[in-house]
Amino acid sequence: MKNIAFCSLLLVLTMLMTAGSGLAQEEDGKLDLNTATLEQLVQIPGVKPEMAQRILEKRKVNGEFVDMDELLDVEGVDDNFLRQLKERVYVKPAAKCNC
User: Which of 41, 58, 76, 98 would staple 52 via disulfide (CB 3.0–4.6 Å)?
Assistant: First the structure.
């Protein structure tokens, strides 16, 4: 019986540690723009699926975002909308970034 309980506990701990892998890491309740998924981006008020897709395409083409201002290159993102996004999203600097 102890083995079953131990295995169950180990399974639950493993699931908790791996849950969210591949999802954007949160910092102060904000999503990391470099790891956010389409599903996560569309949860942000004002971000429609088309815009989320354009953001992901920009990230795919140019590599990681280094600065939030790069979003201004995405169709539909202007200064006002960027300010709103900055309340919900952040850019985690890449480990090898010299920025």
Answer: 41
